[in-house]
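Pilot study result, target chain (850 residues):
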Amino acid sequence: ETRALAASIRTAESEAEPAAAPGAPAGAPFTGPVIAADLVTRFDGPPLMGRDPELRRLLALWDRARGGRGALAVIGGEGGIGKTRLARELVARAREHGARVASCAALDLGGAPPFGLWTELLAELASGLDPPPADAPWPEELARLAPALPRRLGRAPARTADVAPELARARMFEAVVELAAHATAGRPLVLVFDDVHVADGPSIELAAYLARRIADLPVLLVMTRRTTPRSDAVDALLQAARARGVATDEVDLEPLERGDLERLIGAVAGLDALERARVVAVADGNPLLALESARAATRGDRGPPSSLRGVVRAAVSGLSAPARRTVELAAVAGRDLERAELVALAEPRAVLDAMDCGLFRSADGRFGFRHALLRDAVYADLEDARLRGLHEALGEAPGLRAAEAAHHLRLAGRDDLAAGRLLQAAAEATRATAFQQAVAFLREAVDLIPDDPAPRLELAEASAVLGDRATSLAQLGAALRLIDLGDVRACAAAHMRAARWFRGSLCDPAAAGAAARRGLDALDAGGLQQPDLRSELLAVRAWSEVTVAGADAAAGSLSALRSLDLDPTPMRRHDVETVQAYVLLADGRLREAEDLLVHTAETGERAGRPDMAYGGWANAACIASAMGELERALAYAERGVAIVTGLPIVEFQMYGVRAYVLARLGRAEAARADCDHQAELAARLGSSELAALAEHDAGLLALLAGDAERAQALLGRALLGDPPVQRAEARLRRAEALARLGRADDADAEIRAATMERVRPSHRPAVLVARMAFAQALSARARGDRPMAEARLRESAGHWRRLAGEGSWARDHLASLVDLGRPPVTGVVDPARELERVAAELREVQAVPT
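Predicted structure:
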């Protein structure tokens, strides 16, 4: 088949399209007959033998998928056993029924950029899609993975809105689900992921996210992998998909029986009985080795070689030097080469001659080995010196992704060229929200150019996004020592970056304020005004001051900020108004703070920044709820839910706010539905932390609704995890539920456990003391100890009265925002309401005859 393909290409050589310059944009004509757009030829491979039972299992999944229910198949086995061939047969059957199909394969020899599988898959999938609705945002979100995607879908290039890194990632993952839903309009979808055992982590993470979401979509996901070594990530993906109602099947391929091997060999080569027996013997049930040995025998090789490596060596030995170099470049690349890459790396004649060896296929504009094991065999025969030269040629090839280029240059020993490509790879990874991979690239760059502060600052920022405070601080300090002391603006800008990390990912108001002050000091020492930079530093300093020290502390920073008289951009206005709202809140002027927070939310909506709008609506709802204005709080929560839909992380928090308000209004069923949606979002994200947080919130609301059994069960499960909550308070609330169920011993055990939990000032120790006395009272009542119950209730009432007199709600609200990073509405403390609960309980205790 390959010889016929080469002959057809030679015949059509004169009809090839004119050449384009190396590195030309996608869609431009390409040079050389082998890669002309009108000469795409498929190589479908040998017939499928001996796999009927496995194929029937896969077709059962396909029938389910085309019936509208998602399914996942994982085909495993040793190299060359026929995994990809079986997947292709399944795809062919699906195409016969009108399926839309796209496929991708993992890069096998290292250097894969993060989300490499998806970059390839999206490019193929987008080529046949109808244009999306004009108001659909997902094409622009997916441009993080494939910058050309919006144009392929008929959209003008557009810049995605800036959002916090964790929200950008969530939005991008949701965009993949929306793309899949769009692609299933009118027909089912099959997505094939080949060689996932060597796939990069982000690619598997995104595939797992999609797998958890296809239960109600006509989508079949097909993955192939070698079964050894096992991939924990793929196993976890299978388990999560099953838990979400997705039909799954793990098909492990065994070696072929002798009769199946003989029929397979007979279908591709005319060998006599003796040669066929030798081929069957050496193949040991492996169809790839059988086929390659049979083809070698057909070419005249005497007897099948003892290994696949010998087969490949014999096939390549007669090639010309240019053709052999083409074979070797394809092996070192570790993947199929694209048309433009072939243009830059090899002459058309060399490509044609290389195809004569029978190891290659050319399809859909790609050129590569028919199987990864053939590529491995060529690679294993290359000497070190030749390998370095080939890696350098690939590393310098135009159009290669930065991560791959850096990988090849490092293997070539060209660290002088690799550093710049590593910085580009880190930028691409950051754009794609692959922050762990960005950190890895930046660590390499820092090692190569240790005296350059720029990669250290980038590494500090990427580490901060991941919450790695120690690395962030160490790299920031090293970068500051390398920055020229005379470059005042660079010093101030570095401190500003640190201030952003401490306000955002690292969430440390005191450290944010210190970094902002150092930046301002640097500007002042250099006599520089730099209004834009100065205004941002002042805004962070003011936020730190009001959060740490109270309302009066931020007055000077806000005054200096107003004196700059800068144009009020949406971001600047939002930051300033948020600080002003916090000042009002800290000063106890709740209604004014509420109005200003509503304004910040509306500013965020107008700017197309749901993350900015979310903070305003959530905090406004908390304040209104604290003032007893529950209908107004609900209206704010509704606005917040509407704006954050599609951003699962903040959507989770906003549903928690609305659930609490609904519960306070007595709408228990609606509140429970919102709690269920929180649990659904946690499962969608695959987050055990959010799952525990959802159970915590649902447990508190069940307690509020009087369902003690449900409350203790949910809070107990939540505490087994590590949700970002005040664990001591959660234990005391569970103790309350257990006591109401008459389980005094269990309640006392939970109270004791609460005393062992870590308590910080932001956990409101005075509130914990009041709650502990209340829980002890309920436990005593459950035991029938009326005097003890009365004493503990009176003690609790005394604590709540003191708290009511302090008016600490606003301070506690700000502290909880910083400490837990979420609106504290489910933990809002209303001393007056708590006093009513204590009084009601006391009346019931006293009403019982002694």
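One observation from the pilot: The radius of gyration is 32 Å. A full batch analysis is planned for the follow-on phase.
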